[in-house]
Automatic annotation (TrEMBL):
Name under which the protein is recorded: DNA primase
Gene3D superfamilies given in the database record: 3.40.1360.10, DNA primase, catalytic core, N-terminal domain, DNAb Helicase, Chain A, DnaG, RNA polymerase domain, helical bundle, Zinc finger, CHC2-type domain
The keyword DNA damage appears for this protein: no
Family matches, as HAMAP family: DNA_primase_DnaG
């Protein structure tokens, strides 16, 4: 777990304008910067970035957050990866309680990663230059209906038909980084002695593979003359793991948001051709089966994923593997569907023959995950016999166990129960499903904490926007709020404890990250603050002092009324009444 102090220090060092500006063109507009929102399609800028708050906010779709949030939402990175990416940019090393690697070894690893990344970038530039003077490769791409514009967008290139063409790029052709990056192969004799080094990719159209930050981490090379293998991929390297990366995801991110879904295909050419034909939201796995990591990456980008497979047996097998990879991440607010084309078509050929509208119709009619799962487990089983129904249940069991407890799982359980002449409760008991839903009474949802109102809300809101004001909040003020609004006392205490833990360097952005999991009350408030114009801190201090004073006066008034109702029958009560009256007068004078 990354310490909160590190997150705070990181957000104090990075500039959100620089971070967002790497991906979104920004223009100065008053105190803030403006641009077109990257999270929804718009023609007029409604996306603002505040250098003061170190926060972004879109007035169109409501998206908002810190530099960390931006990388998570825009690049599809996980929280830890987003923090590491930002930290690397400002020369910080993310502490990890579980990381036992000595600092010197970690520094060596980071230097090696940078060297590999540099090697891949230089090789990519070389292949792109070679394409311009390679008529066979140009003719091949034109024959597939691709334009120069689309080739440039995906950085397509050509590896010359030579054993060591990269020697012209790397005069020191024997450096280890070329082997570790998978660009060259060392040939050894039977005794293990080194004999010869040569380029891995020769006479192929080159498809650079980028990670979510746009860095080239690998290549796919396609033959043009019917040779084998048809596609040659980079091997696994420190930069490139096939089970974690998706071809075209970097290029497709904005299109995925605009389309509302990601289309997963089976190959490089499908992705590039579909982008040419009006479907730039396509991505592809990299010569390997779809993995849960692939699914997780896609569901960070969009709430709907559609897998497109050929209708032959190989396509069905690939679809089954994709289904199994999806199950752990299936949920009630995500849609996963499966599209099967006729056996004679892949997406590229289907669109060219049938047209974009026909392919769009196929996408709209794709089979939902629940339907495909049932179709797979039923297979050829004879549902008219007990044996056939038992076989269906046997095949369904591991799949339903892989699904998280949810309304979707309950619906599939009900459907399975219907076709196997069982009850949902019997299915859950037979399969020993975690957190059964059908056979137990569902507990009522916990009541949500109400968003604060009135003076108490004003104080909490000011503290979130300007954590430095925490120094102005004494114990009397905390007791006053707790007395007047007991349901908000915990919220205020949580906020004040966080601010005190963060110390003098507390800022709006770092506090937001601290409160990320705190609940709806804070999230609504954060969105409101993000949309506000900047205020002078001196004016904010006055507003806070006034609100605190009024809160204390109200608390004193309530206690005075309570004392008065006792008729002040003893000296202790009378003394307390006098003390409170004097305290109230002092508060009124400010």
């Amino acid at each position: 777990m990354i310490p909160q102090s590190f997150i705070q220090d990181l957000l104090n060092r990075v500039d959100i304008v620089d971070v967002v500006g790497r991906y979104v063109p920004l223009k100065k507009g008053g105190a803030n910067f403006m641009g077109l929102c990257p999270f929804h399609n718009e023609k007029s800028p409604s996306f603002t970035v505040s250098p003061t708050k170190q926060f972004y906010h879109c007035f169109g779709c409501g998206a908002h957050g810190t530099a960390i949030s931006f990388l998570i939402e825009y690049s599809g990175l996980g929280f830890v990866d987003a923090v590491k990416d930002l930290a690397q940019g400002v020369g910080m090393t993310v502490p990890d309680n579980d990381d036992k690697i000595p600092p010197a070894q970690r520094a060596e690893y980071q230097a090696k990663s940078l060297a590999l990344s540099d090697v891949m970038t230089r090789a990519c530039d070389f292949y792109r230059q070679q394409l311009r003077a390679a008529p066979p490769a140009i003719d091949y791409l034109k024959g597939r209906g691709l334009t120069g514009e689309i080739a440039a967008r995906f950085g397509l290139g050509y590896s010359p038909d030579e054993w060591d063409s990269l020697r012209g790029v790397f005069p020191d052709y024997d450096i280890e980084a070329l082997v570790e990056a998978g660009l060259v192969i060392d040939k050894s004799d039977d005794n293990g002695a080194h004999r010869k080094r040569y380029d891995r990719f020769r006479h192929r159209v080159m498809f650079p593979i980028r990670n979510t930050k746009g860095q080239v981490i690998g290549f796919g090379g396609r033959v043009m003359d019917g040779g084998e293998p048809k596609y040659l991929n980079s091997p696994e390297t420190p930069l490139f793991q096939k089970g974690s990366e998706l071809y075209g995801l970097f290029e497709a991110r904005q299109a995925i948001r605009e389309a509302g879904y990601a289309l997963v295909t089976e190959g490089y050419m499908d992705v590039v051709a579909l982008a040419q034909l009006g479907f730039p939201q396509a991505v592809a796995t990299l010569g390997t089966a779809c993995t849960p990591i692939h699914v997780q990456k896609l569901l960070r980008q969009t709430d709907q994923v559609i897998f497109s497979f050929d209708g032959d047996k190989a396509g069905r097998r690939a679809a089954r593997r994709a289904l199994e990879a999806c199950l752990p991440h299936a949920s009630d607010n995500k849609v996963i569907r499966f599209l099967f084309l006729p056996t004679e078509h892949d997406p590229d050929s289907y669109v060219r023959e049938m047209g974009a509208d026909a392919f769009e119709q196929q996408i709209q009619e794709a089979m939902p995950l629940s339907q495909f799962l049932l179709k797979e487990v039923i297979g050829e089983s004879d549902l008219s016999t007990p044996e056939g129904r038992a076989r269906v249940q046997f095949d369904a069991k591991p799949m339903l166990q892989a699904l998280p407890p949810s309304g979707l799982r309950l619906q599939i359980v009900r459907s399975l129960a219907g076709v196997t002449q069982s009850t949902p409760g019997e299915i859950e008991a037979l399969f020993d499903l975690a957190k059964p839903i059908a056979r137990v009474k569902v507990a009522p949802p916990k009541s949500k904490r109400m968003a604060p109102v009135g003076l108490e809300r004003q104080i909490i809101r000011l503290l979130v926007a300007h954590p430095r004001l925490g120094a102005e909040l004494d114990d009397d003020a905390l007791r006053a709020v707790a007395h007047l609004a007991p349901d908000q006392a915990q919220m205020l205490k949580q906020l004040v404890d966080a601010i005190r833990d963060m110390g003098e360097q507390a800022s709006f952005a770092s506090l937001v990250e601290h409160l990320r999991e705190a609940g709806d009350g804070f999230d609504t408030m954060i969105a409101e603050i993000a949309a506000e114009t900047e205020s002078e801190f001196e004016l904010v201090q006055i507003e806070m002092s006034s609100a605190v004073r009024q809160c204390k006066i109200r608390a004193v008034d309530e206690e005075l009324q309570r004392l008065a109702s006792t008729n002040l029958g003893n000296e202790e009560l009378r003394n307390r009444y006098r003390e409170l009256s004097q305290y109230k007068e002092m508060l009124k004078r400010g």
